[in-house]
Amino acid sequence: MQEFTYNFLTEFFLLYDNLPIWFHRLISFNFAWRNVPTGGASPASAVQNYLYDRTISMSLVGVQALTSFPSELAKMDSRATRLLELREALELASHEQPPPLGESHSKIVVRNLTLATPNQVTLAEGLTFQVERDSPILITGPNGAGKTALARVLLGLWKTRGADVSVSVPRALSIVPQRPYLAPGCLGDQVTYPKRFVGDQDASKAEEALKAVGLEHLLERSHGSWDARCMWEEVLSGGEQQRIALSRALFHRPDFVLLDECTSMVAADAEERLYDCVTAVGVTPLTMSQRLFLPKLHKQLAPSSWNVFRASAG
Ligand SMILES: Nc1ncnc2c1ncn2[C@@H]1O[C@H](COP(=O)(O)OP(=O)(O)OP(=O)(O)O)[C@@H](O)[C@H]1O
After folding, report:
1. For a substitution probing ligand 1, which of 148, 242, 309 has the most ligand atoms within 8 Å of its CB?
2. Would you give the distance in Å from CA 251 to the centre of its chain?
3. pLDDT score of 269
4. Is residue 38 situated within a structural domain?
């Protein structure tokens, strides 16, 4: 029944979303007809009033649009990033098929990797490292050094380059990006993304993940219902959005996770606990970050030979 009502309302507003505008116009015209200056109502004065009223209401709509501009921009930002990544992946797939990455069950292995952008700008050469289960590694480097680029290579989005290059990654590898994508859907869907939330099956695991990242208040706010829906990008703060993204890693528990500056908007005093949560559930992070406290949470630091990064002077 709930689904029927939801579908009905969605269809109704999609088809008739301009009804309120026409109601508003009728009311405005009625108002214009009644409130004419001395001399009585005439079509000319009514139309004049109507146009005056429309000018004012259109200006108000303009002001309203301006005030909602920053949040609209934030929404567009994460969507645009995803679209760009999709476009890059499609371009690579159509022109230059990247050689398939090797598959390894228990570790990430990178040997002699040359890191380069799609337009052939070399960012680093000879990258060699491996990440084993329970041996997290931290990669630091200045802005533009190529940390996200490395994540893209490991996910198979960017081509691997280099003589004798070999890159193998486990199937169970996922990413928590800096700017998370919030899926349209209910609260449960946000935690279980990319899979749809299935109440009976996912509720207790999703609740555990949500609590671990300190977002239990979202469930309380919706009176314990996972079906709450809203424009999540507008309602959740930047830090909350990043915590939601981390909760997905805790929900799905891949063997390895790429954490790409994924706590940059989280309050500093909570960050360390969040990283602990990830390792506590048996997920091994490969972290890309500038955060100063992070070295103590990782068993390995990226090898110093990585200072060949093109942008390291920055
Ligand atoms: N699609 C692309 N096409 C061309 N160049 C790109 C592309 N994406 C990123 N770059 C460039 O590659 C370089 C490395 O970018 P990357 O995002 O990996 O840096 P980063 O080390 O993650 O930086 P930050 O610390 O700011 O997140 C940058 O100079 C960037 O402009």
Report:
1. 148
2. 16
3. 85
4. no
